[in-house]
Write a structure and sequence with these properties.
CATH architecture of the largest domain: 3-Layer(aba) Sandwich
Distance between the termini: 59 Å
Helix content: 40-55%
Strand order of the largest sheet: 2-3-4-1-5
Number of helices: 15
Order of helices and strands: HEHHEHEHEHEHHHHHHHHH
Strand content: 5-15%
CATH superfamily of the largest domain: P-loop containing nucleotide triphosphate hydrolases
CATH topology of the largest domain: Rossmann fold
Structural class: alpha/beta
Length: about 325
């Protein structure tokens, strides 16, 4: 039961105001950018609501019977609803299904077993499929006593308007960059680089600093560079890239292009995404045609929308990398 992240103090105080004023919402929708700790904050609030003897700052004590049950993962008044594991593939499903919500509603028909609240955590709330969302909406219209629903999402636009309208919205803003860098610097010497790659999200940056993310990015950059130098075939690289997370990969390529544009127009650009790749990027920037580069960036922007559709991902990457090779043809 970890403590709050350093940048969550103001958010926590706002949540505590609900408790102190005895105005805890029956349905709270916590939203904000990915990787800023929304689920962590939601869990801390849920534990605090269930705790028998909260601390002065409102956090759970960690010692009472309720807290012990939470630690053991079998508190009768706490339910964690998220996409389940597929029994066949052993991978998480992409959505929260109708059966999960029906089971939840059946349990909510019973009274809470403890004197505190009963808390339901639903995350990511935007993964509720249509049938599940409709069933959940009916419950939202007539919630049961002493029950608090906490929904978490970073994709508000994916949630039905009918559900959003019945929730108290709680928006977490992007944390202060200096505060994040100070926190990250305790774990990695590449704090600035990984934070740029995570687009300011501290938990994503932490993840990038502790796995093979930087090595993988550099390998992909070298492959991308080899296409520009006509040393690798775009279709071969597209096949290799098909194994990687497409959203992350598309961001890398887009941010390489943005850095190229900055090097093209500024002698000493600031706020680079990939400052550690500056030598190769600055050299390449002097060789590319800026008009063609902007056209290539337009293709990348279009690909961001297409990548969430049923498009063949290999065909998409082939199109992108063939266009990149064509741009660099002398």
């Amino acid at each position: 039961m970890m403590s709050l992240y350093p940048w969550q103090q103001n958010d926590w105080q706002q949540l505590q105001n609900y408790v102190e004023q005895n105005r805890v919402p029956q349905a709270l929708l916590i939203n904000g950018s990915a990787g800023i700790g929304k689920q962590h904050l939601a869990e801390k609030f849920a534990y605090a609501l269930l705790c028998e003897y909260p601390k002065i700052d409102g956090l759970s004590c960690g010692e009472c019977k309720s807290c012990q049950l939470l630690k053991a993962g079998n508190h009768p008044d706490f339910m964690d609803v998220q996409p389940e594991e597929d029994s066949k593939t052993k991978k998480l499903k992409t959505s929260i299904g109708i059966d999960q919500i029906r089971t939840l509603i059946e349990k909510l028909a019973l009274k809470p077993q403890f004197a505190q609240y009963r808390v339901i955590l639903i995350h990511p709330a935007d993964t509720l499929n249509n049938a599940a969302a409709n069933a959940f909406l009916k419950y939202l219209e007539e919630p049961t006593e002493r029950t608090v629903l906490i929904l978490v999402t970073h994709r508000m636009n994916k949630l039905p308007a009918t559900i959003k309208s019945r929730c108290q919205k709680f928006t977490m803003i992007m944390p202060d960059r200096n505060l994040i860098l100070q926190w990250l610097s305790q774990e990695t010497s590449n704090a600035e680089i990984v934070l740029n790659l995570a687009q300011g999200s501290p938990l994503l940056a932490q993840q990038y600093a502790t796995d093979e993310h930087l090595t993988q990015r550099r390998d992909c950059f070298n492959a991308w560079l080899s296409i520009a130098k006509q040393q690798s075939h775009p279709i071969t690289v597209a096949e290799q890239w098909l194994k990687l997370p497409e959203t992350t990969l598309l961001f890398w390529v887009s941010s390489w292009v943005i850095d190229l544009m900055r090097y093209r127009h500024q002698s000493a650009p600031k706020n680079l995404y990939h400052a550690d790749l500056k030598v190769a990027l600055s050299e390449l920037a002097q060789l590319v045609n800026p008009i063609k580069l902007y056209a290539f960036y337009d293709l990348l922007l279009q690909s961001r929308q297409r990548i969430e559709t049923q498009i063949n991902k290999q065909v998409l990457w082939e199109e992108i990398l063939i266009a990149w090779a064509s741009l660099n043809r002398r």
